[in-house]
Amino acid sequence: MSPLPENRHLRQFLLFVFALIIPCFALWTVAADMVAMPVVGLSNIILGNWFPYAVDSIIFQNSDVYLLTQFGEAGGRPVPAEQSEYQFGFQINPAILSYSLPFYATLHFATQKDEYLTSFLAGVLILYPFILFGLVSLCMKDLMVNLGALFMEHPGVFIPNGNVIGLLYQLNVLIVPTVAPIAVWAWQSQNTDLFTSILGTRQEVAEEA
Fold first, then answer.
1. Closest alpha carbon to 91 in 62, 116, 117
2. Coil, strand or helix at 148
């Protein structure tokens, strides 16, 4: 079997990936609060209206994000609000979802294209709904775990089954943040020299085989 032909475009892409990945993630780290702000605000609206009996608000406190419930806290456990002077809440981390943005930026700007900015902004707009849905799933999982029946057994409100919430959490937090940026990048890059060269190389290998 003959060796694979050299792919100059792929080599250039990989070099740019290694060069860009640290700056992209560093910039994302610096701008993490600003990046998370839109999805935190929308999640606050969605969850506050969907579960008004359980969710008070989702807020920024310094650089941290907290989901505050309608319950008080005593001994680390939720109690009726009138029984405690403390509000029961827990910290959430939007960064475990929004890292898809610097990952996508790395792939996008490492690929040689005719134009970059417009397609990059379009890709970011496509990814943001995935981040939003992931944050809602994350909050629902935390509400289920921390509040238990206080959250899951409220009459008159549609609440997905616990297994469904767990599945949505795993899908949207553990899988989508990695797969979605790759899918968006691949879709936007299908007509680039990189993809053309990769497909051409595969075709040559298939013909030789």
1. 62
2. coil
**Could you read off the pLDDT of 72-93 as tens digits, one per residue?**
888 778 888 888 888 899 999 9
Token pair listed for 47: 């969850």
Pairing of strands 87-92, 55-61: unpaired
> CA dihedral in degrees (181, 184, 185, 191; nearest 10)?
170
Domain ranges for the chain: 8-50+94-208
In terms of Cα–Cα distance, which of 20, 38, 180, 18 is closest to 99? 180
- Exposed, middle or buried, 101 (CB in 10 Å: 0-12/13-18/19+)? buried
CA pair distance 108, 10, nearest whole angstrom: 14
Say what the alpha-carbon torsion angle 55, 60, 66, 68 is, to the nearest 10 degrees: -30
SS3 state of residue 5: coil
Residue with tokens 């609000």: 81
Q: Summarize pLDDT for 185-197 with one digit per residue, the tens.
A: 999 998 888 888 8
